[in-house]
Amino acid sequence: MILFFFPLIIFAQDFNSGGGEYNLYNNDKCLSNLDRIIISNEIKENLKLLSDKIILNKNQSISFIWPLRKDTSLSFNNYFGISNFVDQDTSLASILDYSCLNRSYDGHKGTDIFTWPFPWYLYDNDYVDVIAAEDGIIINKHDGHNDDHCPNTMGGTWNAVYIQHNDGSIAWYGHLKKNSLTSKIIGQSVSKGELLGKVASSGNSTGPHLHLEIYDSAWNLIDPFQGSCNNLNSISWWSSQQNYRQPVLNALLTHDSKPIHGCPGINEEPNMANDFIIGDTVFFAAYYSDRELGDSAHYRIISPNNIVWDSWIQLSSSTFNASWYYWQKLLPLNGPFGVWEFEIEFNSQLYTHKFQYQSPVLIEDKNNIVRKLVRISNILGKEVSEVSNRTLFYLYNDGTVEKKLIFNK
Ligand SMILES: [Zn+2]
Fold first, then answer.
1. Are 266 and 400 part of one and the same domain?
2. CA of 359 to the centre of ligand 1 (A)
3. Mean pLDDT, to the nearest integer, of 267-293?
4. What's the CA-to-centroid distance between 85 and ligand 1, angstroms?
5. 115 near 79, Cβ under 8 Å?
6. Cα of 266 to ligand 1 centre, how many Å?
7. Cα dist. 100→7, 26, 89, 94, 365 in Å?
8. Average pLDDT, stretch 287-300?
9. What is the SS3 assignment for 286?
10. How far is the CA of 212 from the centre of ligand 1 (A)?
11. Which of 83, 152, 182, 200 has its CA 20 to 30 A from that of 262?
12. Could you give the CA distance from residue 405 to residue 155 in angstroms, rounded to a whole number?
Protein backbone atom coordinates (compact mmCIF):
# COMPACT_ATOMS: atom_id res chain seq x y z
CA MET A 1 0.00 0.00 0.00
CA ILE A 2 1.50 3.26 -1.10
CA LEU A 3 1.12 6.14 1.32
CA PHE A 4 3.33 8.71 -0.29
CA PHE A 5 4.71 9.32 -3.69
CA PHE A 6 7.51 11.69 -4.59
CA PRO A 7 8.91 11.87 -8.12
CA LEU A 8 12.42 12.42 -6.80
CA ILE A 9 13.82 12.29 -3.34
CA ILE A 10 17.08 14.03 -2.62
CA PHE A 11 19.07 11.92 -0.22
CA ALA A 12 21.36 13.58 2.30
CA GLN A 13 24.76 14.08 0.67
CA ASP A 14 27.17 13.57 3.53
CA PHE A 15 25.24 11.37 5.85
CA ASN A 16 28.13 9.15 6.63
CA SER A 17 31.87 9.33 6.83
CA GLY A 18 34.55 7.91 9.06
CA GLY A 19 38.02 6.46 9.38
CA GLY A 20 41.09 7.67 11.21
CA GLU A 21 44.15 5.80 12.36
CA TYR A 22 44.65 2.26 11.07
CA ASN A 23 45.81 0.26 14.06
CA LEU A 24 48.75 -1.98 13.14
CA TYR A 25 48.93 -3.72 16.55
CA ASN A 26 52.53 -4.66 15.82
CA ASN A 27 54.15 -3.62 19.04
CA ASP A 28 55.10 -7.09 20.18
CA LYS A 29 58.40 -8.84 19.56
CA CYS A 30 58.93 -9.80 15.90
CA LEU A 31 61.29 -12.54 17.07
CA SER A 32 61.83 -14.06 20.53
CA ASN A 33 65.26 -13.84 22.12
CA LEU A 34 65.48 -17.64 21.97
CA ASP A 35 64.67 -17.69 18.23
CA ARG A 36 67.31 -15.01 17.64
CA ILE A 37 69.95 -17.14 19.37
CA ILE A 38 68.91 -20.26 17.43
CA ILE A 39 69.04 -18.37 14.12
CA SER A 40 72.44 -16.82 14.92
CA ASN A 41 73.84 -20.24 15.76
CA GLU A 42 72.47 -21.75 12.54
CA ILE A 43 74.01 -18.95 10.52
CA LYS A 44 77.39 -19.39 12.24
CA GLU A 45 77.28 -23.14 11.46
CA ASN A 46 76.38 -22.46 7.82
CA LEU A 47 79.15 -19.89 7.48
CA LYS A 48 81.66 -22.52 8.67
CA LEU A 49 80.39 -24.93 6.00
CA LEU A 50 80.51 -22.20 3.35
CA SER A 51 83.91 -20.82 4.39
CA ASP A 52 85.68 -22.05 1.25
CA LYS A 53 82.94 -20.57 -0.99
CA ILE A 54 82.60 -17.09 0.45
CA ILE A 55 85.29 -14.56 -0.36
CA LEU A 56 84.71 -11.37 1.59
CA ASN A 57 85.98 -7.93 0.78
CA LYS A 58 85.73 -5.87 3.97
CA ASN A 59 86.25 -2.66 2.01
CA GLN A 60 83.23 -3.25 -0.18
CA SER A 61 80.70 -0.50 0.41
CA ILE A 62 77.07 -1.30 1.13
CA SER A 63 74.29 0.68 -0.47
CA PHE A 64 70.79 -0.70 0.13
CA ILE A 65 67.93 -0.30 -2.29
CA TRP A 66 64.39 -0.42 -0.85
CA PRO A 67 63.70 -4.08 0.07
CA LEU A 68 60.08 -4.09 -1.15
CA ARG A 69 58.71 -3.83 -4.67
CA LYS A 70 55.11 -3.84 -5.89
CA ASP A 71 53.82 -5.84 -8.79
CA THR A 72 53.19 -3.64 -11.83
CA SER A 73 49.56 -4.79 -11.97
CA LEU A 74 48.82 -3.26 -8.56
CA SER A 75 47.21 0.12 -9.21
CA PHE A 76 47.88 1.59 -5.76
CA ASN A 77 50.07 4.68 -5.80
CA ASN A 78 52.08 3.37 -2.84
CA TYR A 79 51.79 0.19 -0.81
CA PHE A 80 53.84 0.44 2.40
CA GLY A 81 54.65 2.43 5.51
CA ILE A 82 57.09 2.04 8.41
CA SER A 83 55.74 1.04 11.81
CA ASN A 84 58.91 0.39 13.82
CA PHE A 85 62.55 1.38 13.55
CA VAL A 86 65.40 -0.16 15.60
CA ASP A 87 65.07 0.62 19.32
CA GLN A 88 68.35 2.40 20.09
CA ASP A 89 67.74 2.47 23.84
CA THR A 90 68.88 -0.83 25.30
CA SER A 91 67.46 -0.13 28.76
CA LEU A 92 64.21 -1.83 29.66
CA ALA A 93 60.93 -0.05 28.98
CA SER A 94 62.41 2.91 27.13
CA ILE A 95 62.27 3.44 23.42
CA LEU A 96 64.36 5.65 21.16
CA ASP A 97 64.55 5.54 17.37
CA TYR A 98 67.40 6.84 15.19
CA SER A 99 65.68 10.22 14.92
CA CYS A 100 65.35 10.65 18.73
CA LEU A 101 61.63 9.84 18.70
CA ASN A 102 59.86 6.64 19.73
CA ARG A 103 58.60 4.95 16.58
CA SER A 104 59.59 1.48 17.71
CA TYR A 105 58.85 -0.94 20.51
CA ASP A 106 61.07 -1.88 23.40
CA GLY A 107 63.95 -4.08 22.26
CA HIS A 108 63.12 -4.01 18.54
CA LYS A 109 66.20 -4.95 16.49
CA GLY A 110 64.96 -4.29 12.97
CA THR A 111 62.94 -2.08 10.66
CA ASP A 112 59.28 -3.06 10.21
CA ILE A 113 57.79 -2.14 6.84
CA PHE A 114 54.05 -2.89 6.62
CA THR A 115 51.93 -3.19 3.50
CA TRP A 116 48.87 -0.94 3.27
CA PRO A 117 46.02 -0.59 2.44
CA PHE A 118 44.36 -4.01 2.50
CA PRO A 119 47.46 -6.00 3.44
CA TRP A 120 45.60 -9.32 3.16
CA TYR A 121 44.37 -8.51 -0.33
CA LEU A 122 47.98 -7.66 -1.24
CA TYR A 123 49.09 -10.93 0.40
CA ASP A 124 46.40 -13.06 -1.32
CA ASN A 125 47.40 -11.69 -4.72
CA ASP A 126 51.18 -11.79 -4.16
CA TYR A 127 51.36 -8.09 -4.97
CA VAL A 128 54.41 -7.21 -2.85
CA ASP A 129 57.87 -8.72 -3.32
CA VAL A 130 60.66 -8.75 -0.80
CA ILE A 131 63.85 -8.18 -2.76
CA ALA A 132 67.53 -8.25 -1.88
CA ALA A 133 68.62 -4.77 -0.79
CA GLU A 134 72.24 -5.61 -1.66
CA ASP A 135 74.19 -8.33 -3.50
CA GLY A 136 75.14 -11.31 -1.39
CA ILE A 137 74.99 -15.01 -0.67
CA ILE A 138 72.12 -16.92 0.92
CA ILE A 139 73.45 -18.19 4.24
CA ASN A 140 70.21 -19.51 5.76
CA LYS A 141 66.53 -19.98 4.97
CA HIS A 142 63.39 -20.87 6.92
CA ASP A 143 60.20 -21.89 5.12
CA GLY A 144 57.05 -23.96 5.61
CA HIS A 145 55.51 -22.07 8.51
CA ASN A 146 52.02 -20.51 8.65
CA ASP A 147 52.06 -17.01 7.27
CA ASP A 148 48.60 -15.52 7.95
CA HIS A 149 49.07 -14.48 11.56
CA CYS A 150 47.00 -11.73 13.12
CA PRO A 151 46.86 -10.39 16.69
CA ASN A 152 44.98 -13.48 17.91
CA THR A 153 47.08 -16.05 16.06
CA MET A 154 50.62 -14.67 16.26
CA GLY A 155 53.55 -16.85 17.34
CA GLY A 156 55.73 -19.69 16.16
CA THR A 157 58.53 -19.70 13.64
CA TRP A 158 58.79 -17.23 10.80
CA ASN A 159 59.78 -17.82 7.19
CA ALA A 160 62.93 -15.89 6.35
CA VAL A 161 65.93 -15.49 4.09
CA TYR A 162 69.33 -14.47 5.43
CA ILE A 163 71.90 -12.87 3.13
CA GLN A 164 75.56 -12.16 3.71
CA HIS A 165 76.91 -9.21 1.72
CA ASN A 166 80.40 -8.94 0.26
CA ASP A 167 81.68 -6.95 3.26
CA GLY A 168 80.57 -9.70 5.66
CA SER A 169 77.48 -7.90 6.96
CA ILE A 170 74.24 -9.89 7.15
CA ALA A 171 70.59 -8.98 6.50
CA TRP A 172 67.63 -10.95 7.88
CA TYR A 173 64.40 -10.73 5.88
CA GLY A 174 61.61 -12.10 8.10
CA HIS A 175 57.81 -12.87 8.25
CA LEU A 176 57.77 -14.06 4.60
CA LYS A 177 55.00 -16.00 2.88
CA LYS A 178 55.10 -19.80 3.03
CA ASN A 179 56.49 -21.39 -0.16
CA SER A 180 57.16 -17.98 -1.72
CA LEU A 181 60.89 -18.05 -0.99
CA THR A 182 63.48 -18.00 -3.75
CA SER A 183 64.26 -21.51 -4.95
CA LYS A 184 67.96 -20.76 -4.62
CA ILE A 185 69.67 -22.74 -1.90
CA ILE A 186 72.09 -21.85 0.86
CA GLY A 187 75.42 -20.94 -0.71
CA GLN A 188 73.98 -19.46 -3.91
CA SER A 189 74.39 -15.79 -4.66
CA VAL A 190 71.63 -13.23 -5.16
CA SER A 191 71.81 -9.86 -6.87
CA LYS A 192 70.54 -6.58 -5.55
CA GLY A 193 66.83 -6.38 -6.50
CA GLU A 194 66.38 -10.16 -6.82
CA LEU A 195 63.17 -11.69 -5.44
CA LEU A 196 63.63 -13.31 -2.02
CA GLY A 197 59.94 -13.97 -1.21
CA LYS A 198 56.57 -12.32 -0.66
CA VAL A 199 55.49 -10.12 2.23
CA ALA A 200 53.36 -12.04 4.76
CA SER A 201 52.81 -12.49 8.46
CA SER A 202 54.62 -15.65 9.57
CA GLY A 203 55.92 -16.06 13.11
CA ASN A 204 55.33 -13.48 15.81
CA SER A 205 53.50 -11.02 13.63
CA THR A 206 50.16 -9.19 13.80
CA GLY A 207 49.90 -8.48 10.08
CA PRO A 208 51.84 -8.58 6.82
CA HIS A 209 55.14 -6.75 7.12
CA LEU A 210 58.84 -7.20 6.46
CA HIS A 211 61.18 -7.26 9.45
CA LEU A 212 64.64 -6.31 8.17
CA GLU A 213 67.41 -6.92 10.71
CA ILE A 214 71.04 -6.15 9.95
CA TYR A 215 74.37 -7.03 11.53
CA ASP A 216 77.86 -5.94 10.51
CA SER A 217 80.65 -8.47 9.93
CA ALA A 218 81.45 -8.48 13.68
CA TRP A 219 77.78 -9.26 14.61
CA ASN A 220 77.11 -5.72 15.82
CA LEU A 221 73.49 -4.71 15.28
CA ILE A 222 73.09 -2.04 12.58
CA ASP A 223 70.34 0.52 12.08
CA PRO A 224 70.37 1.35 8.36
CA PHE A 225 68.96 4.84 9.02
CA GLN A 226 71.45 7.62 9.76
CA GLY A 227 70.29 10.07 12.44
CA SER A 228 71.41 11.92 15.53
CA CYS A 229 70.15 9.19 17.88
CA ASN A 230 71.63 6.27 15.94
CA ASN A 231 74.24 5.04 18.44
CA LEU A 232 74.98 1.88 16.48
CA ASN A 233 76.58 3.24 13.29
CA SER A 234 77.27 6.68 11.93
CA ILE A 235 76.40 6.44 8.25
CA SER A 236 73.23 5.51 6.42
CA TRP A 237 73.21 2.12 4.73
CA TRP A 238 70.60 3.27 2.19
CA SER A 239 71.62 4.44 -1.27
CA SER A 240 68.94 7.08 -0.77
CA GLN A 241 67.58 7.37 2.75
CA GLN A 242 63.93 8.38 2.87
CA ASN A 243 62.72 11.10 5.24
CA TYR A 244 61.67 10.15 8.77
CA ARG A 245 58.10 10.94 7.75
CA GLN A 246 57.26 10.49 4.09
CA PRO A 247 53.62 11.64 3.87
CA VAL A 248 52.04 9.93 0.90
CA LEU A 249 48.65 8.92 -0.40
CA ASN A 250 48.91 5.15 -0.82
CA ALA A 251 45.57 4.77 -2.59
CA LEU A 252 42.34 6.56 -3.42
CA LEU A 253 39.57 4.12 -4.14
CA THR A 254 35.83 3.78 -4.62
CA HIS A 255 33.89 1.04 -2.85
CA ASP A 256 30.34 -0.31 -3.05
CA SER A 257 30.16 -0.93 0.71
CA LYS A 258 32.15 0.37 3.62
CA PRO A 259 35.64 -1.18 3.42
CA ILE A 260 36.48 -3.33 6.42
CA HIS A 261 40.02 -3.81 7.72
CA GLY A 262 41.05 -6.87 9.64
CA CYS A 263 42.35 -10.38 9.39
CA PRO A 264 42.17 -13.05 6.69
CA GLY A 265 38.90 -14.92 6.48
CA ILE A 266 37.50 -12.99 9.40
CA ASN A 267 36.77 -9.46 8.40
CA GLU A 268 39.03 -7.83 5.85
CA GLU A 269 36.61 -6.77 3.10
CA PRO A 270 38.12 -4.31 0.61
CA ASN A 271 34.76 -3.95 -1.23
CA MET A 272 36.54 -2.12 -4.05
CA ALA A 273 34.29 -1.18 -6.96
CA ASN A 274 34.56 1.09 -9.99
CA ASP A 275 31.17 0.58 -11.65
CA PHE A 276 28.05 2.18 -10.24
CA ILE A 277 24.48 2.73 -11.40
CA ILE A 278 21.84 5.15 -10.15
CA GLY A 279 20.85 4.36 -6.61
CA ASP A 280 24.22 2.91 -5.64
CA THR A 281 25.91 4.45 -2.66
CA VAL A 282 29.54 5.20 -3.47
CA PHE A 283 32.14 5.06 -0.71
CA PHE A 284 34.99 7.43 -1.55
CA ALA A 285 38.08 6.50 0.44
CA ALA A 286 41.68 7.62 0.86
CA TYR A 287 44.52 5.65 2.42
CA TYR A 288 47.67 7.36 3.68
CA SER A 289 51.08 6.64 5.16
CA ASP A 290 52.80 9.10 7.47
CA ARG A 291 50.17 11.82 7.61
CA GLU A 292 51.19 14.51 10.05
CA LEU A 293 49.16 16.57 12.51
CA GLY A 294 47.28 19.35 10.75
CA ASP A 295 48.23 18.53 7.17
CA SER A 296 45.43 19.02 4.69
CA ALA A 297 44.07 16.96 1.84
CA HIS A 298 41.72 18.45 -0.77
CA TYR A 299 39.10 16.14 -2.19
CA ARG A 300 37.08 16.65 -5.37
CA ILE A 301 34.53 14.57 -7.22
CA ILE A 302 34.36 15.58 -10.87
CA SER A 303 31.56 14.68 -13.27
CA PRO A 304 32.12 13.60 -16.91
CA ASN A 305 31.37 17.15 -18.09
CA ASN A 306 34.31 18.32 -16.00
CA ILE A 307 32.26 20.07 -13.31
CA VAL A 308 33.27 19.72 -9.67
CA TRP A 309 30.21 18.02 -8.19
CA ASP A 310 31.54 17.97 -4.64
CA SER A 311 34.69 19.09 -2.86
CA TRP A 312 35.91 19.22 0.70
CA ILE A 313 39.06 19.60 2.77
CA GLN A 314 40.17 17.27 5.50
CA LEU A 315 42.87 17.92 8.11
CA SER A 316 44.80 15.19 9.89
CA SER A 317 43.95 15.17 13.59
CA SER A 318 47.32 13.65 14.54
CA THR A 319 50.45 12.05 13.08
CA PHE A 320 49.72 8.50 11.97
CA ASN A 321 51.87 5.75 10.47
CA ALA A 322 48.75 4.64 8.61
CA SER A 323 45.36 6.32 8.33
CA TRP A 324 42.27 6.22 6.15
CA TYR A 325 39.06 8.17 5.64
CA TYR A 326 35.85 7.51 3.76
CA TRP A 327 32.78 9.45 2.68
CA GLN A 328 29.54 7.83 1.64
CA LYS A 329 27.66 9.64 -1.13
CA LEU A 330 24.79 9.15 -3.54
CA LEU A 331 25.58 10.52 -6.98
CA PRO A 332 22.94 12.75 -8.65
CA LEU A 333 20.12 10.51 -9.87
CA ASN A 334 19.82 12.39 -13.14
CA GLY A 335 23.51 12.02 -13.99
CA PRO A 336 25.53 12.99 -15.91
CA PHE A 337 26.55 9.43 -16.65
CA GLY A 338 29.94 8.28 -17.85
CA VAL A 339 33.46 8.33 -16.39
CA TRP A 340 33.73 10.30 -13.15
CA GLU A 341 36.91 11.21 -11.32
CA PHE A 342 37.74 11.17 -7.64
CA GLU A 343 40.67 13.48 -7.13
CA ILE A 344 42.91 14.25 -4.14
CA GLU A 345 45.47 16.98 -3.81
CA PHE A 346 47.86 16.08 -1.01
CA ASN A 347 51.39 17.20 -0.24
CA SER A 348 51.61 19.13 -3.56
CA GLN A 349 50.67 16.05 -5.56
CA LEU A 350 47.49 15.40 -7.48
CA TYR A 351 46.09 11.86 -7.46
CA THR A 352 43.17 10.70 -9.59
CA HIS A 353 40.91 7.65 -9.55
CA LYS A 354 38.34 7.03 -12.29
CA PHE A 355 35.03 5.24 -11.90
CA GLN A 356 31.97 4.56 -14.08
CA TYR A 357 28.54 5.92 -13.28
CA GLN A 358 25.84 4.56 -15.57
CA SER A 359 22.13 4.62 -16.05
CA PRO A 360 20.53 1.20 -16.54
CA VAL A 361 19.04 0.59 -19.98
CA LEU A 362 15.33 1.37 -20.11
CA ILE A 363 13.03 -1.53 -20.93
CA GLU A 364 10.23 -0.69 -23.34
CA ASP A 365 7.05 -2.68 -23.99
CA LYS A 366 4.44 -2.16 -26.71
CA ASN A 367 2.43 0.41 -24.81
CA ASN A 368 4.53 2.14 -22.24
CA ILE A 369 8.05 2.57 -21.01
CA VAL A 370 8.27 0.13 -18.16
CA ARG A 371 10.20 1.18 -15.13
CA LYS A 372 12.53 -1.36 -13.68
CA LEU A 373 13.05 -1.50 -9.93
CA VAL A 374 16.75 -0.94 -9.22
CA ARG A 375 16.78 -1.25 -5.46
CA ILE A 376 14.85 -0.80 -2.22
CA SER A 377 16.48 1.27 0.52
CA ASN A 378 15.57 2.04 4.12
CA ILE A 379 15.62 5.61 5.45
CA LEU A 380 19.38 5.34 6.02
CA GLY A 381 19.95 4.59 2.36
CA LYS A 382 20.94 0.98 3.06
CA GLU A 383 19.70 -1.58 0.53
CA VAL A 384 17.07 -3.84 2.10
CA SER A 385 14.46 -6.36 1.02
CA GLU A 386 10.76 -5.50 1.12
CA VAL A 387 9.29 -5.57 4.63
CA SER A 388 6.02 -4.40 6.14
CA ASN A 389 5.52 -1.44 8.48
CA ARG A 390 8.73 0.34 7.50
CA THR A 391 9.21 3.40 5.36
CA LEU A 392 11.11 2.26 2.28
CA PHE A 393 12.39 3.98 -0.84
CA TYR A 394 11.90 2.25 -4.20
CA LEU A 395 14.34 3.47 -6.81
CA TYR A 396 13.56 2.84 -10.48
CA ASN A 397 15.83 2.89 -13.47
CA ASP A 398 14.31 6.07 -14.85
CA GLY A 399 15.61 7.93 -11.81
CA THR A 400 12.31 8.15 -9.95
CA VAL A 401 12.02 7.19 -6.31
CA GLU A 402 8.85 6.19 -4.51
CA LYS A 403 8.50 6.37 -0.77
CA LYS A 404 6.23 3.55 0.41
CA LEU A 405 4.92 2.19 3.67
CA ILE A 406 3.29 -1.21 3.32
CA PHE A 407 1.06 -2.29 6.19
CA ASN A 408 0.53 -5.85 7.26
CA LYS A 409 -2.50 -7.26 5.54
ZN1 LIG B 1 60.21 -6.20 13.49
1. yes
2. 49
3. 95
4. 8
5. yes
6. 24
7. 63, 20, 10, 12, 73
8. 97
9. strand
10. 7
11. 182
12. 54
Q: Which pLDDT belongs to residue 362?
A: 52
Query: For residue range 314-331, what is the model confidence (pLDDT) as tens digits?
Result: 999 999 999 999 999 999
State the pTM of this model.
0.85
Q: Which residues contact 282 (CB under 8 A, 6 or more apart)?
A: 254, 255, 256, 276, 328, 329, 330, 331, 355
How remote is the CA of residue 259 from the centroid of ligand 1, in Å?
A: 27
Distance (Å) from CA 49 to ligand 1 centroid: 29
CA 159 – ligand 1 centroid, Å: 13
184 and 299 assigned to the same domain: no
Residue 232 binned pLDDT confidence (cut-offs 50, 70, 90): very high
The CA 84 to ligand 1 mean position distance, Å, reads 7
What are residue 122's phi and psi, to 5 degrees? -65, -40
Strand 349-358, strand 275-277: pairing: parallel
Rounded distance from Cα 82 to ligand 1 centre (Å): 10
**Are 1 and 61 found together in one domain?**
no
Look up the domain containing 128 and give its range.
Answer: 31-222
- Phi-psi category of residue 52: left, alpha or beta, with phi > 0 → left and psi -120 to 50 → alpha: alpha
**Helices (DSSP H) in 50-128: which residue ranges?**
119-124
Determine, yes or no, domain membership for 240.
no
Three-class SS state of 46: helix
Mean pLDDT of 57-79: 92
The backbone region for 389, taken as left when phi is positive above 0, alpha when psi lies in -120 to 50, beta otherwise, is left
Q: What percentage of the chain exceeds 90 in pLDDT? A: 73
27 pLDDT band (50/70/90 cuts)? Answer: low
In a domain, 210, yes or no: yes
Q: 267 CA distance to ligand 1 centroid (A)?
A: 24
The CA 112 to ligand 1 mean position distance, Å, reads 5
CA of 58 to the centre of ligand 1 (A): 27
CATH number of the domain to which 198 belongs: 2.70.70.10
Write the pLDDT tens digit of every residue in 330-385: 999 889 999 999 999 999 999 999 999 998 655 455 556 667 777 888 877 788 87
What spacing in Å lies between the alpha carbon of 26 and ligand 1's midpoint?
8
